[in-house]
Amino acid sequence: MVLRLPALFVSPNLEVNMGVATSTPAPVPVPPGRYLFAFGDSYTATLFNTSDTQPSLSNPMGNPAYPGTTTSGADNWIDVVVYNSTRNDTVAYNYATGANMVNITACQGQAYAASGPVKELNDQMALFKQLPTTVKWNATNSVFFNFFGINDISVQVYSGRSYTNATIILAPDIDNYFSQMGAQYSMGARRFVTILVPPIYRAAVHGFGNGTAAPLVRNLTAYWNNAVHSCAKSFSSKYPGSEMEVFDPSTTFNTILDNPTGYGAPNSTCYSYPAGQPCLWADFIHPGIVMQRAFGNAMNAFLDSNGL
């Protein structure tokens, strides 16, 4: 992975002309050329605080300092995207918050709600609406990432619901997901990347794919991803001028999990907490450094291939 080095502050150059010292004015700061806005859960979160240091070209994710506070042990996929050397004109506003769901009421996840005030996509959107007008994003220089479903699925399993009952609950949750992307469109967004749920059934909490609930998790993941694909196909016709791309991280995750030693891990059935390596999992559910960085690299290639 190639990291982008922060820009340096340059002091005015002093010149001497016939004994008179003069100074060259400091260069006017160059505004970002691209803006990324991310909404999601702990797979994306870096604990960005909207009241703290804001993103700039010299500090593209604002706060906390790189790589942020993540669940991987180091950087996660969005760090890799933003600090890629080919995106040195990019800043990111990362509203993702751990344990968040699309719509906590729709998916009946109140018993598993995040402890803080931000519990669902609508809460993250409320933070986005506070963005100062001095941030000059527009329809063509921005990309909106939405990555939900992990917690929406998990609460169905933890609540003991059957596949049939879970899908009945998840259907309106997914409808609300795309309605909220429609709200993003209404505020000016035109370019979207929706991220599918990776194979979380292979995480430690589900016995690395061999636990009692693993088949249900796998089936609900397939249901969620298929429904998201279906809704994404009709999004652009419903919202003229929009571009909706769907990114599936499953191939990246499965490739690594199927060949753990090839990626420096002893096996695919361990986790390294809090270091995030050498095991592929950082804890009971979150991917470690290797998988998050591979995820980010795959996303970079995906964005490039779609001109985003």
TrEMBL record:
In its UniProt record, a GO molecular function of this protein is: hydrolase activity, acting on ester bonds
- Matches recorded under InterPro entries: GDSL, SGNH_hydro_sf
Any Pfam family hit: Lipase_GDSL
Stated name of the protein: Carbohydrate esterase family 16 protein
Which organism is the protein's source? Dothistroma septosporum (strain NZE10 / CBS 128990)
